[in-house]
Amino acid sequence: MSDVLTHSIVEAGRWIDSQGWCPATGGNFSARIDASSAWVTASGRHKGELTPYDLLRVDSHGQVINSKLKPSAETLLHTALYALDVNIGAVLHTHSVASTVLSRLEASNTLVLHGYEMQKSLSGNNTHDATVAIHIFNNTQDMQALAQQLKNTWAKSPLQWGFLVRGHGLYAWGKDMVEARRHLEGLEFLFACERDMMLLKR
Ligand SMILES: [Zn+2]
Q1: Ligand 1 centroid to residue 157 C-alpha, Å
Q2: What contacts 1, CB < 8 A, 6 or more positions away?
Protein backbone atom coordinates (compact mmCIF):
# COMPACT_ATOMS: atom_id res chain seq x y z
CA MET A 1 0.00 0.00 0.00
CA SER A 2 2.88 2.35 0.61
CA ASP A 3 3.79 3.95 -2.65
CA VAL A 4 4.51 7.35 -4.06
CA LEU A 5 0.92 8.09 -5.08
CA THR A 6 -0.76 7.16 -1.80
CA HIS A 7 1.93 9.05 0.12
CA SER A 8 1.33 12.12 -2.06
CA ILE A 9 -2.39 12.11 -1.13
CA VAL A 10 -1.70 11.70 2.60
CA GLU A 11 0.85 14.52 2.47
CA ALA A 12 -1.55 16.78 0.54
CA GLY A 13 -4.14 16.15 3.24
CA ARG A 14 -1.79 17.27 6.02
CA TRP A 15 -0.92 20.45 4.14
CA ILE A 16 -4.51 21.28 3.13
CA ASP A 17 -5.69 20.73 6.71
CA SER A 18 -2.94 23.06 7.95
CA GLN A 19 -4.38 25.73 5.63
CA GLY A 20 -7.91 25.19 6.99
CA TRP A 21 -9.31 24.34 3.57
CA CYS A 22 -11.00 21.03 4.49
CA PRO A 23 -12.74 21.41 7.87
CA ALA A 24 -14.80 18.68 9.53
CA THR A 25 -13.97 15.79 7.14
CA GLY A 26 -14.99 17.86 4.10
CA GLY A 27 -13.28 17.55 0.73
CA ASN A 28 -11.68 14.63 -1.10
CA PHE A 29 -8.51 13.95 -3.04
CA SER A 30 -7.34 11.56 -5.73
CA ALA A 31 -4.35 10.55 -7.84
CA ARG A 32 -4.45 8.73 -11.17
CA ILE A 33 -2.86 5.27 -11.16
CA ASP A 34 -3.26 4.45 -14.86
CA ALA A 35 -5.68 4.95 -17.76
CA SER A 36 -8.54 3.22 -15.95
CA SER A 37 -8.05 3.61 -12.19
CA ALA A 38 -7.22 6.10 -9.43
CA TRP A 39 -6.62 6.27 -5.67
CA VAL A 40 -9.34 8.27 -3.89
CA THR A 41 -9.98 9.17 -0.25
CA ALA A 42 -12.60 7.16 1.63
CA SER A 43 -15.76 8.90 2.79
CA GLY A 44 -15.84 10.60 6.18
CA ARG A 45 -12.11 10.71 6.98
CA HIS A 46 -10.53 13.85 8.45
CA LYS A 47 -8.14 15.10 5.79
CA GLY A 48 -5.42 16.06 8.25
CA GLU A 49 -5.33 12.55 9.72
CA LEU A 50 -5.24 10.37 6.59
CA THR A 51 -3.15 7.21 6.35
CA PRO A 52 -2.67 5.09 3.20
CA TYR A 53 -5.35 2.76 4.65
CA ASP A 54 -7.93 5.54 4.22
CA LEU A 55 -7.51 5.36 0.43
CA LEU A 56 -9.18 3.02 -2.03
CA ARG A 57 -8.85 2.27 -5.69
CA VAL A 58 -11.71 3.00 -8.10
CA ASP A 59 -12.13 2.34 -11.82
CA SER A 60 -12.92 4.96 -14.44
CA HIS A 61 -16.64 4.76 -13.57
CA GLY A 62 -16.03 5.32 -9.85
CA GLN A 63 -16.62 1.64 -8.97
CA VAL A 64 -14.59 0.28 -6.04
CA ILE A 65 -11.78 -2.16 -6.87
CA ASN A 66 -11.06 -4.75 -4.19
CA SER A 67 -11.78 -2.70 -1.04
CA LYS A 68 -14.36 -2.62 1.74
CA LEU A 69 -13.95 1.15 2.13
CA LYS A 70 -16.71 3.47 0.93
CA PRO A 71 -15.58 6.07 -1.59
CA SER A 72 -16.56 9.69 -1.20
CA ALA A 73 -19.85 10.58 -2.89
CA GLU A 74 -17.92 13.06 -5.03
CA THR A 75 -15.64 10.38 -6.51
CA LEU A 76 -17.65 10.61 -9.74
CA LEU A 77 -16.32 14.12 -10.35
CA HIS A 78 -12.75 12.92 -9.94
CA THR A 79 -13.20 10.03 -12.37
CA ALA A 80 -15.04 12.33 -14.81
CA LEU A 81 -12.03 14.68 -14.83
CA TYR A 82 -9.60 11.80 -15.46
CA ALA A 83 -11.78 10.63 -18.36
CA LEU A 84 -12.07 14.13 -19.82
CA ASP A 85 -8.34 14.86 -19.89
CA VAL A 86 -5.62 12.20 -20.02
CA ASN A 87 -3.12 14.80 -18.81
CA ILE A 88 -4.82 15.17 -15.41
CA GLY A 89 -2.85 13.19 -12.81
CA ALA A 90 -4.25 14.47 -9.49
CA VAL A 91 -7.42 16.21 -8.25
CA LEU A 92 -7.85 18.10 -4.96
CA HIS A 93 -11.32 19.13 -3.74
CA THR A 94 -11.51 21.62 -0.86
CA HIS A 95 -14.27 23.34 1.17
CA SER A 96 -12.50 26.61 1.97
CA VAL A 97 -14.17 29.77 3.28
CA ALA A 98 -12.93 31.79 0.28
CA SER A 99 -14.29 29.40 -2.36
CA THR A 100 -17.55 28.94 -0.47
CA VAL A 101 -18.22 32.67 -0.04
CA LEU A 102 -16.90 33.87 -3.39
CA SER A 103 -18.94 31.32 -5.35
CA ARG A 104 -22.05 32.75 -3.67
CA LEU A 105 -21.06 36.39 -4.25
CA GLU A 106 -20.60 35.74 -7.99
CA ALA A 107 -24.09 35.26 -9.44
CA SER A 108 -23.07 34.17 -12.95
CA ASN A 109 -21.63 30.80 -13.95
CA THR A 110 -18.13 32.22 -14.52
CA LEU A 111 -15.73 33.91 -12.13
CA VAL A 112 -13.41 36.22 -14.08
CA LEU A 113 -10.07 37.13 -12.53
CA HIS A 114 -7.83 39.84 -13.92
CA GLY A 115 -4.85 41.90 -12.78
CA TYR A 116 -3.39 39.57 -10.17
CA GLU A 117 0.31 38.62 -10.22
CA MET A 118 -0.65 35.27 -8.69
CA GLN A 119 -2.51 34.31 -11.89
CA LYS A 120 0.99 33.19 -12.93
CA SER A 121 0.67 30.27 -10.49
CA LEU A 122 -1.74 28.71 -13.01
CA SER A 123 0.01 26.81 -15.81
CA GLY A 124 0.05 28.69 -19.12
CA ASN A 125 -0.18 32.16 -17.55
CA ASN A 126 2.85 34.44 -17.65
CA THR A 127 1.31 37.83 -16.94
CA HIS A 128 -1.13 39.53 -14.58
CA ASP A 129 -2.52 41.28 -17.66
CA ALA A 130 -4.69 38.39 -18.82
CA THR A 131 -8.08 36.99 -17.96
CA VAL A 132 -8.55 33.78 -16.00
CA ALA A 133 -12.07 32.31 -16.15
CA ILE A 134 -13.20 29.76 -13.55
CA HIS A 135 -16.53 28.01 -14.14
CA ILE A 136 -19.08 27.86 -11.29
CA PHE A 137 -21.59 24.99 -11.14
CA ASN A 138 -24.64 25.23 -8.91
CA ASN A 139 -24.45 22.88 -5.97
CA THR A 140 -26.43 19.64 -5.90
CA GLN A 141 -26.33 16.37 -3.97
CA ASP A 142 -26.88 14.51 -7.28
CA MET A 143 -23.31 13.71 -8.29
CA GLN A 144 -24.38 11.90 -11.46
CA ALA A 145 -26.09 15.10 -12.60
CA LEU A 146 -23.14 17.28 -11.65
CA ALA A 147 -20.70 14.96 -13.45
CA GLN A 148 -22.90 15.17 -16.55
CA GLN A 149 -22.98 18.99 -16.34
CA LEU A 150 -19.18 18.94 -16.11
CA LYS A 151 -18.96 16.75 -19.23
CA ASN A 152 -21.43 18.99 -21.13
CA THR A 153 -19.54 22.16 -20.19
CA TRP A 154 -16.20 20.57 -21.07
CA ALA A 155 -17.51 19.50 -24.49
CA LYS A 156 -18.21 23.17 -25.33
CA SER A 157 -14.87 24.39 -23.96
CA PRO A 158 -12.40 22.39 -21.82
CA LEU A 159 -11.88 23.84 -18.34
CA GLN A 160 -8.42 24.63 -16.99
CA TRP A 161 -6.94 24.46 -13.46
CA GLY A 162 -10.20 24.05 -11.54
CA PHE A 163 -13.88 24.82 -11.11
CA LEU A 164 -16.09 26.03 -8.27
CA VAL A 165 -19.30 24.52 -6.92
CA ARG A 166 -21.52 27.29 -5.54
CA GLY A 167 -21.61 27.53 -1.76
CA HIS A 168 -19.58 24.33 -1.61
CA GLY A 169 -15.95 24.50 -2.71
CA LEU A 170 -13.24 24.10 -5.31
CA TYR A 171 -11.97 21.27 -7.50
CA ALA A 172 -8.38 21.91 -8.62
CA TRP A 173 -6.20 19.61 -10.68
CA GLY A 174 -2.82 19.26 -12.33
CA LYS A 175 -0.70 16.89 -14.37
CA ASP A 176 0.62 15.49 -11.07
CA MET A 177 0.19 16.16 -7.36
CA VAL A 178 2.85 18.90 -7.38
CA GLU A 179 1.02 20.87 -10.05
CA ALA A 180 -2.41 20.20 -8.50
CA ARG A 181 -1.13 21.61 -5.19
CA ARG A 182 0.25 24.72 -6.93
CA HIS A 183 -3.02 25.31 -8.76
CA LEU A 184 -5.00 24.80 -5.55
CA GLU A 185 -2.78 27.20 -3.60
CA GLY A 186 -2.85 29.79 -6.39
CA LEU A 187 -6.61 29.62 -6.82
CA GLU A 188 -7.28 29.77 -3.08
CA PHE A 189 -5.09 32.89 -2.87
CA LEU A 190 -6.84 34.50 -5.86
CA PHE A 191 -10.29 33.65 -4.44
CA ALA A 192 -9.45 35.22 -1.08
CA CYS A 193 -8.28 38.40 -2.87
CA GLU A 194 -11.33 38.55 -5.12
CA ARG A 195 -13.72 37.92 -2.22
CA ASP A 196 -12.18 40.84 -0.33
CA MET A 197 -12.32 43.07 -3.43
CA MET A 198 -16.01 42.26 -3.97
CA LEU A 199 -16.88 42.92 -0.34
CA LEU A 200 -14.95 46.23 -0.28
CA LYS A 201 -16.81 47.44 -3.36
CA ARG A 202 -20.21 46.83 -1.77
ZN1 LIG B 1 -17.35 18.67 -1.40
Answers
A1: 23
A2: 52, 53, 55
**Any binding-site annotation on 61?**
no
In the three-class reduction of DSSP (H, G, I as helix; E, B as strand; rest coil), residue 95 is classed as coil
Instruction: Judge whether 183 is annotated as a binding position.
Output: no
Q: Is 102 exposed, middle or buried (0-12, 13-18, 19+ CB in 10 A)?
A: buried
Mean pLDDT of the chain: 95
Taking only the tens place, the pLDDT of each residue in 163-174 is 999 999 999 999
Mean per-residue pLDDT for 105-133? 94
According to DSSP, the β-strands at 37-41 and 55-59 are antiparallel
In the reported structure, the alpha carbon of residue 91 is separated from the centroid of ligand 1 by a whole-number distance in angstroms of: 12
- Say whether pLDDT at 56 is over 70: yes
If you classify domain 4-201 with CATH, what class do you get?
Answer: alpha beta
Give the C-alpha separation, 159 to 51, whole Å.
31
Region 1-21 average pLDDT:
92
**Domain locations in the chain as residue ranges:** 4-201
